[in-house]
Amino acid sequence: MSEDVEVRLTVNGDGYRVRVEPRKTLVDALREDCNLTGTHIGCEHGVCGACTVLVDDRAVRSCLMFAYQAEGTSIRTIEGLADADGTLHPVQAAFREAHGLQCGFCTPGFVMSIVALLDENGAPTPQEVREGLSGNLCRCTGYQTILEAVDIAAATLRATSLEATR
Ligand code: FES
Ligand code: FES
């Protein structure tokens, strides 16, 4: 059995010092050691996207990354999206408006992927959205409303950034 290692993680701006087995995945460390259970585990081998988080602003499947590999990075999870007063992030608000979830299991992963997608490209084409989300699976097959949520969120984020430049 391997020796535990100490890992320092920065998640949603907060520092965590955890002792984990070297083989422990980031998603397990987030859920079990940081008590951040909003990130879900589906397939555990990089297929479903349920475990998507942002690592240095890039969407990453946290079941494919060891916790120790995330040391020194800035991690963002679904828990870090809403404002402190509870105001939803525009992508979360768009999911609510478009009814972009059914059971909700895939939702944190989709939301994090969309945040990264719209951060990179504020006006994606329908094809770019489909490609950007091709690594996220919804077993309830609610894809149409998820695509509508992306459109709503993109429009909100564009309006917000326009407002900020005035
Ligand atoms: S749980 Fe990580 S991709 Fe499915
Ligand atoms: S809403 Fe149920 S898995 Fe996507």
The total number of structural domains is 2
Decide which structural class fits the backbone. alpha+beta
**Mean of residue pLDDT?**
96
Principal-axes geometry comes out as globular
What does this structure look like?
The chain has 166 residues and is of the alpha+beta class. The chain has 2 domains: 5-80, Beta-grasp domain (Ubiquitin-like (UB roll), Roll), CATH 3.10.20.30; 90-165, DNA polymerase, domain 1. Helices cover 37% and strands 15% of the residues. The protein is built from 5 helices and 5 strands, in the order E-E-H-E-E-E-H-H-H-H. The chain has a 5-stranded mixed sheet with strand order 2-1-5-3-4, with helices on both faces. Helix 2 (90-98) packs across helix 5. The model has no long low-confidence stretch (mean pLDDT 96). The structure holds FE2/S2 (inorganic) cluster (FES) (2 copies).
Q: Which key phrases capture this entry?
A:
Ubiquitin-like (UB roll); 166 residues; 5 helices; DNA polymerase, domain 1; alpha+beta; binds FE2/S2 (inorganic) cluster
